[in-house]
Amino acid sequence: MLLYNGMAFVGDDMRKMKILQKVLESDIFWNYVVANSKPYTSGYYSLNGSNIKNFGAPKFTKAEEEELLRLEDKGAVNQWLSSFYE
């Protein structure tokens, strides 16, 4: 199980959970949230299902999964993911 900003993602495959975490922590995901959600008065954004249900995660090949999992730097992850969201 992956807990992230009040959301729970359940799965038995830790590898897939780590890939999901990298996508959710990317600027691409947060730009989507900001564009599709309304901020609370305190500036926080809602991550409920209706605000993020249309955000798609790419289907990576095994080689792409390995490459993504090797990336440590958030900037490198953002740059690497950007080609999948053009």
Describe the model.
There is one protein chain. With 86 residues, the chain is mostly helical. The protein has one domain (2-85). The protein is 50% helix and 7% strand. It is built from five helices and two strands, in the order E-E-H-H-H-H-H. It has helices at 14-24, 27-36, 49-52, 62-70, 74-82, and strands spanning 2-4, 7-9. The protein has a two-stranded antiparallel ribbon.
Query: Whole-number average pLDDT?
Result: 88
Radius of gyration: 13 Å
Regions with pLDDT < 50 over 5+ consecutive residues? none
What number of structural domains do the residues give? 1
List SSEs in N-to-C order: EEHHHHH
In percent, how helical is the residue content?
Answer: 40-55%
Count of distinct strands: 2
Distance between the termini: 30 Å
- Outline type: globular
Which structural class best describes the helix and strand composition?
Answer: mainly alpha
Discrete helix count: 5
How are the strands of the biggest sheet laid out side by side?
Answer: 1-2
Proportion of beta-strand residues = 5-15%
The main pleated sheet reads as: 2 strands, antiparallel
